[in-house]
Amino acid sequence: FFQRSSKKRRCFLFYNINTNTGKRPTMIRSSLVLLLAAITPVGGFYLPGVNPQSFGDGDPVKLKVNKMTSHQTLMPVDYYRLPFCQPVDGVNVDNENLGEFLAGDRIKSSPYRLNMKEEMYCEQLCSTNLGRGEQRGVSPNKVVRAIRKEYHNNWIVDNLSAASKVEDDTTITTRYWQGFPVGFVATDTKKAYVHNHVNIEIMYHPVETETDKYRVVRFTVEPFSIKHDFEPLEDDDNLNGDDDGADTSNYQVAKINNPIASCDPSRGSKVHTDYAMITAPDREAQIASGPALFTYDVTWKENDELHWASRWDIYLSMDNAIPAKVHWLSIANSLVIVFVLSAMIAAILVRNLRRDFARYNKLATDEEKAEDLEEFGWKLVHADVFRPPSFSPLLLSVACGTGAQILCMSFLTIIFSAMGFLSPANRGALLMAELLLYVMMGGVAGYVTARLYKTFKGKAWQRATTCTALGFPGIAFLMFFTLDVLAISQKSTDAVPFTTMIVLLVLWFGISTPLVFFGAYFGYKQDAIEFPVNTSSIPRQIPDQPWFMGIPFTLAIGGILPFGACFVELYFILASVWMDQYYYVFGFLLLVYFILIVTCAEITVLFCYFQLCGENYHWWWRSFCTAGSTALYVFLYSFVYFKQLEANSLATYLLYFGYMGLVSLGLLCMTGFIGVASSLAFNKTIFSSIKID
């Protein structure tokens, strides 16, 4: 799903999904949709997931505001935390799903009045006092602090996020992520200035199936800073029209002295605000303090080429800011690593194993028996190779069960995302899908833990199951609760309400925990994993190992190759999480996901063979750590990436490294399970192929 599909195919999929609302789709139709999704080229394909909204001439189009974000603090804050204009009838909060709450989204109504195809020229919104001025030794006001921390507004029209247009003397740049800045800091005076005027540009597309109906397909905001010389009117609610919004023109809260051309009511022909008006020699920017008048323009443009089903394409591709070539080079880099590892396994393992099988299985001649040749190699540890780990078999079982749960959750999430079911048009869907799939995979964790622990001849099965149900989820919840308290102290929208906490606890103890015990029940009912050789009662002494088979070297080499195969996609994922950028190349991510699994399995099998050749049969934990060391490299890379955030507060450090540490712990369990499972399959295969006296 990496290259754009044709408009015809996109519209066909959209038609099949949305024109059958309320009807049960047939199995044939569902199969066709899935088949088309599977054969679509890798790229910006997605299923909108919601019905389009059509507007007639003059119909009100709601503009909503979301949280303000900053890549410096990583702490989103509520839009109305700053002294911005509020709706006359009060602020209304949208109903949000669990994923939106966890992501910190707080979508609310705004006082901006938009009507379909009705142009607006320097419409007055309100006048407000931004706070005290900037002075040395005096704490700056909220607006100044937000501007210096580079907070951005995130507005929404018809569920479409606002793009930001920035203009200077030579260029016009449009950015489709991170919203638009609250203000800016002047390079000469070093003072903060607020964007108190916005040009709202909305593109619409005529509906082919309806007459005089239109759909919003693009939403762009160009912010300006204008110092209006104004005098507040005695009645700020002076509106030359009805309060129901039928006529939103000539809404005035102040009289502007010496207005710019777009704000001049005496001008015969109306014009929209532009860059030349703002930068005229006699104009100044609005400083982020004292009284300020907020105004806005609205421009409507018809776009016959851009269809509603394709309106998110430019957001998902971020206007081709990151070419697909970068991802293909990443895939090529990863495939080179896989091919090199596969060649090493073919050259070392296959050739050596064939020689070992021939040597171990041939009948000894009388001369060889007389010489009493001593055996060497991995066959010597056949009576110890499947001995349970000497250190905490329970912990290894729990870690592998958790890793299997995360592996299944991540696989299903990427599959659904690549098929287009988790589109960004449905805010919070991806996060909610991850959470629910993790909860539903609790049975997998219980089953894997039970099978391994029973194979290790463990007796405390209740403790093992309880640790699986409460271990990693408990660590995650404790981290989440701690950072939630931190968010509350910072008055951030990341702070989750108490009711949402209750929902998370219900998911944990009401669904996940019973599923873990349910899966463990079936795991303990199964027979222990059968091994091709018997284990002796007396452990064999392990000879001294060479330096390159020590733990530091195996961890360093075992983790760097899988990390090298996926670090490019990791960069874009981190940019999506921490820099508010869009990430929607899940087809690429699916390929990298498989490459990561194969790389972890191959490097672990290679080191496991070398370890057994050195007559060291303690491979259980070594295999887990060899593949799991990928998580160590991810955590170390997070320090390198942190430099891009320009963070300078303790709260940001705790938030970033707290969550990155939690992610690395989950990756440790997942890749560690891959290492244990691949080494177990490898050892069972080679020891079942030789004759044991």
Task: Briefly characterize the structure.
This protein has 693 residues and is an alpha+beta fold. Helices cover 46% and strands 13% of the residues.
Class per helix and strand makeup: alpha+beta
Low-confidence stretches: 1-46, 236-248, 368-374
Tell me about the largest β-sheet.
Answer: 6 strands, mixed
Q: Radius of gyration from the CA trace?
A: 31 Å
Number of helices: 17
Cross-sheet strand order for the largest sheet: 3-16-12-13-7-8
Q: What is the strand content? A: 5-15%
> What is the terminal separation in angstroms?
55 Å
Mean pLDDT across all amino acids? 82
Helicity range? 40-55%
**Shape summary:** elongated
* Tally of strands: 16
Could you explain the architecture of this structure?
- The protein is α+β, with helices and mostly antiparallel strands and 693 residues long.
- The chain has helices at residues 7-18, 27-39, 98-103, 142-148, 275-278, 313-316, 324-361, 366-371, 393-418, 429-440, 442-455, 461-489, 498-525, 551-578, 586-613, 620-642, 650-687, and strands at residues 60-65, 108-115, 120-129, 152-153, 155-157, 160-161, 163-167, 172-175, 180-181, 183-185, 192-194, 197-206, 214-224, 229-232, 254-257, 291-302.
- A 6-stranded mixed beta sheet has the order 3-16-12-13-7-8, with no helix packed on it. The chain has a 4-stranded antiparallel beta sheet with strand order 2-1-5-6, with no helix packed on it.
- Helix 7 (324-361) packs antiparallel against helix 14 (551-578) and helix 7 (324-361) runs parallel beside helix 15.
- The longest helix is centred in the middle third of the chain and has 38 residues, at 324-361.
- It is elongated and about 100 Å long.
- It starts with 6 loop residues before the first helix and ends in a 6-residue tail after the last helix.
- The relative contact order is 0.12.
- Mean pLDDT is 82; it is low at 1-46, 236-248 and 368-374.
